[in-house]
Automatic annotation (TrEMBL), chain A:
Family, per entry: Belongs to the TrpB family.
Cited PANTHER family: TRYPTOPHAN SYNTHASE, TRYPTOPHAN SYNTHASE-RELATED
Cofactor(s) demanded: pyridoxal 5'-phosphate
The protein's name: Tryptophan synthase beta chain
EC number of this enzyme: 4.2.1.20
Subunit and partners: Tetramer of two alpha and two beta chains.
Reactions mediated catalytically: (1S,2R)-1-C-(indol-3-yl)glycerol 3-phosphate + L-serine = D-glyceraldehyde 3-phosphate + L-tryptophan + H2O
One Pfam assignment: PALP
GO molecular function: tryptophan synthase activity
Gene3D superfamilies, sorted: 3.40.50.1100
Record-annotated Tryptophan synthase beta chain-like PALP domain positions: 65-387
GO cellular component, one term: cytoplasm
Species classification: Bacteria, Pseudomonadati, Bacteroidota, Chitinophagia, Chitinophagales
Entry function: The beta subunit is responsible for the synthesis of L-tryptophan from indole and L-serine.
UniProtKB/TrEMBL annotation, chain B:
Classification via InterPro entries: Aldolase_TIM, RibuloseP-bd_barrel, Trp_synthase_alpha_AS, Trp_synthase_suA
Gene assigned in the entry: trpA
Name recorded for this polypeptide: Tryptophan synthase alpha chain
Gene Ontology molecular-function annotations: tryptophan synthase activity
Organism listed in the record: Chitinophaga eiseniae
CDD domains associated with the record: Tryptophan_synthase_alpha
Catalytic activity entry: (1S,2R)-1-C-(indol-3-yl)glycerol 3-phosphate + L-serine = D-glyceraldehyde 3-phosphate + L-tryptophan + H2O
Top-level taxonomy: Bacteria, Pseudomonadati, Bacteroidota, Chitinophagia, Chitinophagales
Function of the protein: The alpha subunit is responsible for the aldol cleavage of indoleglycerol phosphate to indole and glyceraldehyde 3-phosphate.
């Protein structure tokens, strides 16, 4: 379980200026320059330090419970007439892939001498994963969460509080994930010395997209080993992952980026339909611009105002995508599909019945596209099951009654 | 024609008062009446905010004014329409302040051309990085005689301040503390930073902003720099104003008399 350090000169990895093709960079106000510059100049040295890697590896193994299983989903495979494997990130401590990144960043924050941690959260999964590692390390934790999401995700708010975090409602703008992220950035501007911002997705100013992707790259590193053991080849035909900001997709794709025979499929949230006005399918609806200090694709008006997306899944309800993914989209290296709320719900019910696994609504979007892939019976497909569905029970129950 | 900002600092080196207001606030068509009143009652410079949905560097008061202005229907196109012909009556330098995304979406060169056409003198874009400005956009801004004004903070190193000074035109915007706009921080704690800035003998004039709200804070800032910028306190003052001219007169007379 090494963190990917030497990624060579891949055309899909970040360049020395923090860009992926024409996307990326750090569009930050001067007030954030010292913090971001410190991260930019130190993160690779810290991540490549053997003692850091040892500590990261030990916590992923004993605390998170890695490696997460790569499970051959027999009945799902029969249904879709292909060999489908599920990468079980839902079995991690705290129930999603988010903890891989928070473990990495809390260790980094300690090495930078930071004593206070801030984070943003949408559905609350990243907030819980951050509160968890702060409790583990005894650091103060403040989580910004849109006031609308606080109402929608009460159990995760309770979890964060129980773990000792302070949950601060973001009441500006649209009062959801985008605004929680703004508030976290504003907090960082006001607390430039003692605070580290644990951003939860592969977005934001350089080096966050790359740093988060590296911490999450443990997902594809394990897939390669596990698939080789199970099938005799480390290379599947497809890797499928859902994408909001893009952290689980970044991790699932990471070690396959330069292996072009492996098809990468990112599934965005289509909401009520891409052209319904209630969607979060950024690659279809977005144009180039700046969101949360990164130049990437985002949903905006013709006047450059960022618009509020819609998805049944709070974790995909984000009006941008990380710059690495914008580049994967533009270069054609990854295929971008979208699943509607309805398709995702159906896929969630289906996985529960066929495999006894209730997936997170986010992960259900990835599963929902199995029906649309041109699969052959010999094709090996890995779906990143990014999280478990406990947090979404209300949504599942509400829609079952229909 | 010499840039109006340079003309101003050629004439006046002390106690320069720059007041920020959000375009289209408190009502959509208040932009010009507010600017007219600011000039009338003694503001030396006007900084006009281009509202944005996600103003990262701003505190709650300016955020709310931005949200309100957008709800009022303000956009860059509407702003340029409002500003057409404003130079017939307003002669003080005017700076547009806003975030990079709307400018990028409008088109950087189209934006600069429009600014020059209506008579804008300078631009503040807090999230446009210095390196990107230098490599991509400097020639465009200079072509249209627009001064790009950069920020420096108490955490900015001397080396970086000197680099920023060399790229900035018009003046430097010295953020008084590491904060978003409108935060109260103790000005006395910042005096060492102001002293340090003064001792650097920079090539640009310096105006201090963030946390300037009354005569006392304005005078302190002015003692160390060429003047100061007031934003949040002014937005609060005009938010519920029934008589813009009267409100502006009262506000400014409280600062400079």
């Amino acid at each position: 379980m090494d963190i990917a350090i030497n990624t060579g000169n891949s055309r899909y990895q970040v360049d020395k200026n923090g860009y992926y093709g024409r996307f990326g960079g750090a569009y930050i106000p001067e007030m954030l320059y010292p913090n971001v510059h410190e991260l930019q100049t130190k993160y690779l040295d810290i991540l490549s330090d053997p003692s850091f890697q040892q500590e990261f590896e030990a916590l992923l193994k004993d605390y998170v419970g890695r490696p997460s299983p790569l499970y051959f989903a027999k009945r799902l495979s029969e249904k879709y007439k292909a060999k489908i494997y599920l990468k079980r990130e839902d079995l991690n401590h705290t129930g999603a892939h988010k903890v891989n990144n928070t473990i990495g960043q809390i260790l980094l924050a300690k090495r930078l001498g930071k004593t206070r941690i801030i984070a943003e959260t949408g559905a609350g999964q990243h907030g819980v994963a951050t509160a968890t590692v702060c409790a583990l390390m005894g650091l103060e934790c403040v989580v910004y969460m849109g006031s609308i999401d606080i109402e929608r995700q009460a159990p995760n708010v309770a979890r964060m509080k129980m773990l000792g975090a302070t949950v601060v409602p973001a009441t500006s703008g649209s009062k959801t994930l985008k605004d929680a992220t703004n508030e976290a950035i504003r907090d960082w501007i006001n607390n430039p010395v003692d605070t580290h911002y644990i951003l939860g997705t592969a977005a934001g100013p350089h080096p966050y997209p790359d740093m988060v992707a590296r911490f999450q790259s443990v997902i594809s590193e394990e897939i390669k080993k596990q698939l080789l053991e199970k099938t005799g080849s480390a290379h599947p035909d497809y890797v499928v992952a859902c994408i909001g900001g893009g952290s689980n997709a970044a991790g699932a794709f990471f070690h396959y980026l330069d292996e072009e025979e492996v098809k990468l499929v990112a599934v965005e949230a289509g909401g009520k339909g891409v052209h319904s006005g209630f969607s979060a399918a950024t690659t279809q609806l977005g144009t180039i611009g700046i969101i949360h200090a990164s130049k990437t694709l985002l949903m905006q008006t013709s006047d450059g105002q960022i618009v509020e997306p819609h998805s049944i899944s709070a974790g995909l309800d984000y009006p941008g995508i990380g710059p690495m993914h914008a580049h994967l989209y533009e270069s054609g290296r990854a295929q971008f599909l979208d699943a509607t709320d309805e398709e995702a719900l159906a896929a969630g019910y289906e996985l529960s019945l066929l495999e006894g696994i209730i997936p997170a609504m986010e992960s259900a979007h990835a599963l929902a596209k199995l029906k649309d892939l041109p699969l052959n019976t010999d094709d090996v497909v890995v779906v990143c099951l990014s999280g478990r569905g406990d947090k979404d029970l209300d949504t599942y129950i509400r829609n079952m009654k229909k | 024609m010499q840039n109006r900002i340079d003309q101003l600092f050629a004439k006046k080196q002390h106690g320069v008062l720059n007041i920020y207001c959000t375009a289209g606030f408190p009502k959509l068509n208040d932009t010009l009446p507010v600017m007219t009143a600011l000039q009338q009652h003694g503001a030396d410079l006007i900084e006009l905010g281009m509202p944005f949905s996600d103003p990262l560097a701003d505190g709650p008061v300016i955020q709310d004014s931005s949200t309100k202005a957008l709800q009022n229907g303000m956009s860059l196109h509407t702003l340029f329409t409002q500003l057409a012909g404003f130079r017939q009556t307003i002669h003080v330098p005017v700076i547009l302040m806003g975030y990079f995304n709307p400018v990028l979406t409008y088109g950087v060169e189209a934006f600069c051309a429009k600014c020059a056409e209506v008579g804008i003198d300078g631009i503040i874009v807090p999230d446009l990085p210095m390196a990107e400005y230098e490599s991509e956009y400097r020639t465009v801004f200079e072509k249209y005689n627009l001064h790009l004004i950069f920020l420096v903070t108490p955490e900015t190193s001397e080396e970086r301040i000197r680099k920023i000074d060399s790229l900035s035109k018009g003046f430097l915007y010295a953020v008084s503390s590491s904060s978003t706009t409108g935060k109260d921080k103790n000005m006395n704690d910042q005096q060492a930073y102001f002293e340090r800035l003064k001792s650097l003998q920079l090539s640009n004039p310096v105006l201090i902003g963030f946390g300037i709200k009354d005569k006392a804070t304005f005078d302190t800032a002015s003692a160390y720099a060429n003047g100061a910028i007031i934003g949040t306190a002014f937005i609060k003052a005009i938010e519920h104003s029934q008589d813009i001219d009267k409100t502006v007169e009262t506000f400014i007379s409280g600062i400079i008399q």
